[in-house]
Amino acid sequence: MALTYEKVKVLHISELEPLIGKKVIIGETQIGLFLMENGEVRAINNVCPHKQGPLSEGTVSGHYIFCPLHDQKIDLDTGRVQEPDKGCVTTYPVEIIDGDVYVCL
């Protein structure tokens, strides 16, 4: 059985700056969007699992985001917190259609 997603248009790609996070809210969910150096967009839950820091305000390096509160390193592809820390955040598929960015929930 194939998974079905609800695609939600959140913004136009021109509203994103490379390697600078942007917070969007869909319903009750805060999502951090990140335009990577290769032009792809990553979407993750915007709340760090450690101290609930706003990940969209963190520093991007490679395919990682560093939490602005305690510098936890989180993989933007998988959502996994890197050792020695532990935890995980939800990642969301992203589609770009005619420049519009959709997050798939």
From TrEMBL:
The keyword Cytoplasm does not apply. Keywords: 2Fe-2S, Iron, Iron-sulfur, Metal-binding, Nitrate assimilation, Oxidoreductase. Residues 8-103 form the Rieske domain. It comes from the Bacteria. It holds the Pfam family Rieske_2. SUPFAM superfamilies: ISP domain. This is Nitrite reductase small subunit NirD. The gene is nirD.
